[in-house]
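Hi there. Long-time user, first ticket. I'm pasting a complex I've been working with (about 616 residues overall). I'd like to know whether the download I got is complete or cut off, because the file seemed smaller than I expected. Thanks.
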Amino acid sequence: MGRLLLRRLLLALPALLGLLVLTFILLRVVPSDPSTALAGENATPEQIEAIRKAYGFDQPLWRQFVVYIGQVATGDLGNSIFTEQPVIRDIARRLPATIELVLMALIFATCVGIPLGVLAAVHHNSAFDHAVRVITVGGLAIAPFWFAIILQLIFSMDLNWLPLRGRLPVQVQPPEFITGLYMPDSLLSGRLDLFLQSAHHMILPAFTLSLGSLASITRFTRAGVLETLQKDFVSYERAAGYPDRRIIWVYVLRNSVVATVTQIGLLFGALIAGAVAIETIFDWPGIGSYAVQAILTSDYKAILAVTLVVGVIYALVNLVVDIVHALLDPRVAEEN
Amino acid sequence: MLIIRKFLRDVPAMMGFAIICTVIGIAVFGSMLVPHPHLVFESDLLRRFEPPSAEFWFGTDNLGRDIFSRVLVGTQGALTVALTVVAVAIAIGVPLGIYAGYTTGWLSELVMRVTDMFLAVPQIILALAIAQLAGRGLGSAMTALALTYWPFFCRTVYAETRRLRHSVFIEALEGLGASRTRILFAHVLPNVASPIIVRATVGMGFTILTTALLGFLGVGATAPSPDWGLAIAESREYLPDMWWAATFPGLAILFTVLGFNLFGDGLRDLIDPKLRRSRS
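Hi, the file is complete. Here it is re-exported in full:
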């Protein structure tokens, strides 16, 4: 297990280094002359030269890259031109909102998707199975940002059942900062009212965000269960008289869910990407809406910092997924 | 032949095929079918905010333009962008994947490390960063999407080629002295073609969604383009009253993507016997 962990960590390093190279290229090499851009339109050649020296643009690229790595390692990603704060602080402040949203969407997608997939496989080719198929195919074809707007139209603007935007009503103070996730924090500080309010605000964004993942998880579980159902051990267990329910929900599920778990790592990436649109629509103060705001204001440093942070999170999630995979299926750990 | 007959009996896949044909038909002949050609780009301020009616099936927008006509005209743009992006991604990703999968050495290693680097961040995040740096507009959005989409093809082709590398027929060809170019393009490529086709079909739908999202976020098509994503973004200011302006472009996206996904799923079932078994 320890060796597996080490191996995966080592494997994640080149990708992260590559990400540094990529963001460096985008930040320093692609803009043909960053110092001219920084100096503004009316700068004199002397001013441009001064900026070039001050920012180290006169140094060879490899040395600039080393300096860049040093800056990233110490968390110095520059200041946002929009908020005028260090981007790393902006991101740290907004990250919990995104994490909470993504986690809720993932929990919803898993808790609904796995049972749906199992039931569809068990009753395959039934009306239920066909209905599930329509939902999964539709869930992957629908544009989440559009669906979010339609649900807002129905449930927030027309019926007035669910809040239109934000994590809490504007006048309400958020719970005491423990994890930054409002729902657990409000429970931990004993504020049931805040918990209900933040849960109420969570429903629409988390549901629309989860749709694609829900569809993928359902499909993978269904395919996995159908395949496992044909294995000899299932026939054996049936012959031995185990109750059907136990065979399906314990033995078959454990053997088929492994493939689904490895998918969750990929889904996490899809969810963070989806959060870009969903957060914008629901005014959710996370890093997704931060990225869009950075793009609309040409805030390069903020954009690239978001890219880096998302890359690191992505690598960490895949690491966790590999470990869970090894725990669920000991053969994986042995292979390494 | 058996496999083709089986495919023809796959109702959802055939529905997808019908949708794709319809959408392509609209893209090609759309400008002739448009009921109000003058209301695609020109505004008519006397007809603003009209709800769907017999005259304006999808209603009119805040400038009095006919939404049905605009959705029809927008089809061509959506398909062209998706087709270009997928084609460029294939043109970059497939040769690199075949080469890296077939050879070993530093160059192959480098190609795959670069691929991993692109796959280390969700596509849309990278695409947003690149689209912004390249300057706003449909052109840079397309560049950004193509530049971030090829690694998916490269990975798939790489894995397939690696699997084939030590198969008997490739070794036999090597033994007979066939050139590397010949082996790669005349023998390996046809064998890795089916996963490429499946990925490309599903990728069309996926790219239509991503392009619409870029348009919606303001880094894709610019006004007065009839781009579907842009239309949804423009309608937001007038919600909930002008609900039709948000609804119909989104339905157009759903319809088109559904077509490619249904067809792609059918193809996948046909090609991947493991999944095929699970469907019957």
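A couple of notes from our side: The radius of gyration of chain A is 24 Å. Chain A has 14 helices and no strands.
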